[in-house]
Inverse folding.
C-alpha cells in the first residue's frame, strides 16, 4: 500500500501536494498532481551602461606655418642702381659666424639709392641688443665706401622683428658645415595654435639624434650649447627665434 502524501479533500480524495510529488488514489492508482500553469512575464528592462573613459588631452595638429616668401626674407630691390648696392652690402659677413653673410641671415632688409647717389641701408638685428650689430653696420659702410659710394647711411629697424624663418637654406647648410646645427622648424611665436615641441637636435658632425642640451645659451645668446652622446662632441645649436 502506498502512503498518500498531501491533504484530504471533502470527498476523501487526496489532493496533490504543492511540491508536485505523485499521490495515491483510493483505487490504488498513482496520479500525478495537476501541473500548475506557469506564467512567465518577461519584462524588458532597458539598461544604460555608462562607461567612464579617461579623457586624454586633445592635441590639435596644425600644418606648419608656411615659410616666408623669398622676397620677404631677402627683399632684393628691382631698381638696377639699388640692386648693385645691395649686392655689395650682401657680401658683409656676420662677425660672430663668419661663414654667413647678412643676406644669408636675412638681416639685410633694405637698400635704396637716391638720385644724388646716396645709399640708405636698413638692418634688422637678430635680437635686441645684439653686440654684433655695430660691427655689421660699420662693415656695410666700409664695403659700400670701397665700392665707390661716397654717401652711405646705415640705420636699424626693429619691426618686423627678425626671425630664423628668414635664414636661407644655403645659410643653414653653411652653418652645419661650420659645426653649428641650424634652426629646425618655424618660429612658434608667429603661428597660431599649439606650440610645437622640439624633441631632438641632430648633431652636425655625426647626424646623431642622441644629444642633450648643456646650456640654454652658447657662445652667443641666439645659440644653445649641446653635446652629442655618440661622438661626445659639443656643438652650438642656432635656436628657433
Amino acid at each position: 500500500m502506498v502512503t498518500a502524501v498531501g491533504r484530504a479533500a471533502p470527498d476523501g480524495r487526496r489532493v496533490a501536494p504543492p511540491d508536485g510529488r505523485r499521490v495515491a488514489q483510493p483505487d490504488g492508482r498513482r496520479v500525478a498532481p495537476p501541473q500548475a500553469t506557469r506564467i512567465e512575464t518577461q519584462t524588458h528592462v532597458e539598461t544604460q551602461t555608462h562607461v567612464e573613459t579617461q579623457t586624454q588631452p586633445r592635441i590639435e595638429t596644425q600644418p606648419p606655418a608656411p615659410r616666408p616668401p623669398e622676397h620677404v626674407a631677402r627683399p632684393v630691390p628691382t631698381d638696377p642702381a639699388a640692386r648693385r648696392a645691395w649686392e655689395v652690402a650682401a657680401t658683409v659677413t656676420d662677425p660672430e659666424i663668419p661663414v654667413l653673410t647678412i643676406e644669408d641671415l636675412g638681416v639685410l632688409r633694405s637698400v635704396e639709392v637716391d638720385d644724388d647717389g646716396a645709399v640708405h641701408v636698413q638692418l634688422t638685428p637678430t635680437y635686441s641688443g645684439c653686440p654684433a650689430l655695430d660691427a655689421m653696420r660699420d662693415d656695410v659702410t666700409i664695403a659700400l665706401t670701397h665700392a665707390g659710394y661716397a654717401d652711405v647711411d646705415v640705420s636699424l629697424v626693429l619691426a618686423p622683428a627678425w626671425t630664423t624663418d628668414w635664414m636661407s637654406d644655403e645659410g643653414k647648410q653653411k652653418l652645419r658645415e661650420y659645426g653649428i646645427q641650424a634652426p629646425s622648424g618655424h618660429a612658434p611665436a608667429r603661428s597660431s595654435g599649439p606650440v610645437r615641441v622640439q624633441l631632438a637636435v641632430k648633431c652636425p658632425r655625426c647626424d646623431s639624434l642622441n644629444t642633450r642640451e648643456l646650456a640654454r645659451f652658447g657662445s652667443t645668446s641666439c645659440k644653445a650649447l649641446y653635446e652629442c652622446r655618440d661622438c661626445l662632441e659639443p656643438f652650438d645649436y642656432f635656436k628657433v627665434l
